Amino acid sequence: MKRIFALIPMLPLLLTGCTGIPATPGKTVNRMAGGFVSDVTVTTADSQTRAVLTRYGTDAWEVCFCEPAALDGVELRFLDGEVTASYKGLEFSVPQSAQALRTEFAELMHVVDSNAPLTELDTHTADELFVSEGELEVGSYTLSFAQDGTPVQFSLPAYGVLITFDTFTDADGCAVTETSTIPKTYPVTDVVTETST
């Protein structure tokens, strides 16, 4: 009987170690601090878009659209504050149909990059999720996580936007490495050519 009572104080420690739940109350582990790849769905009142979101590091991201058909194969690259678009290797300006998505993804990227130095995020629980909240220039946001720190959804109520993380693979389980880079490209207007006279 004494052995049972001796184990009772250790129960929270044992349960925490088995479930992967962070030991700090009101916090959740930040699994978005490094590189990751995620299948995401962007839902608004009148549309739904599917894409693969890749984070290589701070201010180095890529979004490859899968649906709808009008955006299938279009890639947006976010690097050092610049955004470029391409389709099968051909670069062009960001299409009008992707401008709103560009803004919505940029807000998510800003939140993730700002939190990247943190190993844990302040959260509260709601509907069995761990929710981190904050303010952006466009208004408030919520970023929700599962118990193990896996992102579940990002919401921008002012835009009526919900980005759902359908899958999530962090740097430990994907091809993203410290040497992964997004090739930097320049608009054609930046290229100066000399003409012979």
Structure annotation, total helices? 3
Mean pLDDT: 79
What's the total number of strands?
Answer: 14
Q: Estimate the strand proportion.
A: 35-45%
| CATH architectural type | Clam
- What overall form do the CA principal axes indicate? globular
Unreliable residue runs: 1-23, 173-197
Distance between the termini: 99 Å
Radius of gyration: 21 Å
CATH fold assignment: outer membrane lipoprotein receptor (LolB), chain A
Please outline the major beta sheet. 12 strands, antiparallel
Order of helices and strands: HHEEEEEEEHEEEEEEE
Helix content: 10-25%
Structural domain tally: 1
**So, the CATH homologous superfamily?**
Lipoprotein localisation LolA/LolB/LppX
- What's the CATH first level? Mainly Beta
Judged by helices, strands and strand pairing, the structural class is alpha+beta
What brief labels describe this structure?
single chain, 197 residues, alpha+beta, outer membrane lipoprotein receptor (LolB), chain A, twelve-stranded antiparallel sheet
Could you characterize what this model shows?
The chain is α+β, with helices and mostly antiparallel strands. The chain has a single domain, classed as outer membrane lipoprotein receptor (LolB), chain A, CATH 2.50.20.10. It has three helices and 14 strands. It has helices spanning 2-7, 11-19, 99-115, and strands spanning 27-29, 36-43, 48-57, 60-67, 74-79, 82-87, 90-92, 120-122, 124-126, 129-136, 139-145, 151-156, 161-165, 169-170. Strands 2, 3, 4, 5, 6, 7, 9, 10, 11, 12, 13 and 14 form a twelve-stranded antiparallel β-sheet that branches. Strand 5 and strand 6 (82-87) form a beta hairpin.
